[in-house]
Amino acid sequence: MADACQLDCGLQRPRCILWRGVGVRLTAPFKRVGGYLDARIGRGTFATFPARTPLLGWPLDHMFVTPDFKVRDLAVLEDVGSDHLPIHSRLCLTGKPGTNGRPEPVSNEDRKDVKEVLQDYREERRDR
Q1: By C-alpha distance, which of 42, 11, 32 is closest to 114?
Q2: What domain count does the chain have?
Q3: What confidence tens digit (pLDDT) does each residue in 16-64 have?
Q4: CA 22 to CA 13: how far, in whole Å?
């Protein structure tokens, strides 16, 4: 799922999220509702799955950042034995909105999608 990297440096909002193996249905509303930017935009497609056939791969893994981060570089690394290729990035926490762009506005459809995803998650957890 998601590994959240939070910095405790007096700033409450800055975050980067590494999200493994999640489809577009979840990522689009997640970005808008959370105010995140896709670190890959303007840098390439970054096919990470499947690791064994990178020429046929697709960008299944994501990296999202708040506008407080400036993405210095982003790269897909060599196979380390997982079914996904690792992602490496250098980020600079500026504490102010950077040049990465602005998050997309949140729509009512986004809010509805997020509620549905959360409800599905709660039901799945309850049924275990």
Answers
A1: 32
A2: 1
A3: 677 766 666 677 777 777 788 888 888 888 888 898 887 788 888 888 8
A4: 23
pTM exceeds 0.85:
no
120, 124, 127, 128 alpha-carbon torsion, rounded to 10° = -170
| Domain span holding position 55 | 2-126
> Across the beta sheet with 2-6, what order do the strands follow?
2-6, 15-19, 62-65, 37-38
* Alpha-carbon distances of 117 from 43, 45, 123, rounded to whole Å: 29, 26, 10
Between CA 18 and CA 64 the distance in angstroms is 7
The pair of structure tokens assigned to 118 is 């959360």
Cα gap 128→117, rounded to integer Å: 17
